[in-house]
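Quick start: read one record
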Amino acid sequence: MDAVWRIESPRLIAGLTRLVHDIGVAEELAQDALVAALEQWPRDGVPRNPGAWLMTTAKRRGIDLIRRNETFARKLQLLGHELETAQGAAVFEGPEDAVQDPAAIEDDLLRLVFVACHPVLSREARVALTLRLLGGLTTDEVARAFLVAEPTVAQRIVRAKRTLAREKVPFEVPQGAELAVRLASVLEVVYLIFNEGYSATAGDDWMRPGLCEDAVRLARVLQGLMPAEPEVHGLAALLEVQASRSAARIRDGAPVTLLDQDRRRWDQLLIHRGFAALARAEVAARARGAAPGPYALQAAIAACHAQAVRAEDTDWPRIAGLYRALAATAPSPWSS
């Protein structure tokens, strides 16, 4: 059940937000559907399509909610029409048989990404809301991950939702010049999550691997949602290669510098995934006639280290050239 929720909750909340135009209400409807599943699945068995079951159940509860509020009459018609369209002419056995359009689900998920990472929110709020809505973490899990009191995180999330409603942030993917600015905010949030896991700023542990895993997973999701964006692949490449060193970064409770790490402990699967993402970043950049961005350049530096079997085999001239390009591309904070 936990695995299903982690996988399906972001899609569920995204689809419901498009319909009700309120992240808070969408999350409540999704949780209502989860409660229904916890009540019914142990008795009736897990449906063939858990995601469709949850979505259909949540939409039906949404209709009940809207019926109790006459001001939402127009949205009721919209929800009813969508359910009729989804169910179509064919009669199916239950909610698990509902057909979901993968393209529509991905579109909604991408919209939710940009809303959760909207610059109108503080950095802390963006991080908490992203982990809550897109990472599938509970408020308690977010609090424990950052060693913050649970009421503090809960308040951040509540205030973030109120801010989005007050500022009337549209549930849409930004276009034109605004896209680059908004995408930078999204990538920054994922990078912050990873860095907090990779080099913890609070607590007794040097690393929090769970946060690294969450960030890598979010980066992979973004790759699927925005395959034409070079820096999306650049960030994914950077995180994959950096995460590959996790097992070698701590020894006897103390951090180990890069040059002193046992490279046999580096995760080769993550390294290969990072190389593949870096190649995609380079292809996407060439397609646009653009130079590599800061994340792609950092990923290329990390790749140089990963390619060296021994520290003394490192291609330092290439790394120096990449750092020069990085300093020219983003003088601050990258060059500090």
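The first strand starts at residue 250 and ends at 251.
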